[in-house]
Fold:
Amino acid sequence: MIQRRRFKTSDGVFLSVIESGPREAALTFALIPGWCMPGWLWQPQIDALSARHCVAALDPRGQGESDVPDHGYNFERRAADIREFLRPYENVVLVGWSLGALEALEYAHRFGEAKLAGMVLVDSSVGELPVPPPEGHFLDDLRSDREKELRDFVRAMYAKPRPEPESARLLNDVKRMSLDNSIALLSSGIPREHWKECAHAFKKPLLYVVTPQFEAQARNLEKNRPGTQIEIFQDAGHALFVDEPQRFNELMVQFAARL
Structure:
């Protein structure tokens, strides 16, 4: 049964979690969405994986149904939020998408791997070569016409158009965080080499799932970090787990079976 729970962080913010499946399951899938995204975007994974596993999708601060405070939009605090989110669970497969993948790496870097059985990083740059091309004028465009830029951003996440009610709901969720705080999340100043060091230092099983924009990085991580498993979704958009949910879910099941 799918339910929501809320917990209070150590800095007084209430965060929301979508949870399904048995808490006593051998593994828990803990799902971290990307920049400004809600946890319900993982619904195909919650539905498919909770038959055998506990599945918990976090609404990070300022996102989904969580509180929207005026502070905490940095990697240090967001990693602490993940630590507090994971307290009820053991033997966790931590799955982070886009910005959420970097936050998952930061969690492991700061707080260790004791809770984790493995990690899945989804379509995010992890510091390997080649360096991704510049993002253009995204931040400037956000400041000048946030509504249009976010609408285009949501539309571009998918290879296949989504139903209009879903897109409207998602766009509404993406706008919950203030403009300044949403930009702060993308302006950490952390060098990209940090993420490479975090990925290489992670000792548990690691799966890196990407679209073609990060394929070369995936090949290099596979080469430079022995034991890394990679998977390329050639025809999916950035939200590849929504575009091709059955393939992604089967990949999660197979990864879990090897742990």
About this structure: Strands lie at 3-8, 14-20, 28-32, 54-59, 92-97, 116-122, 206-210, 229-232. The chain has one domain: 3-258.
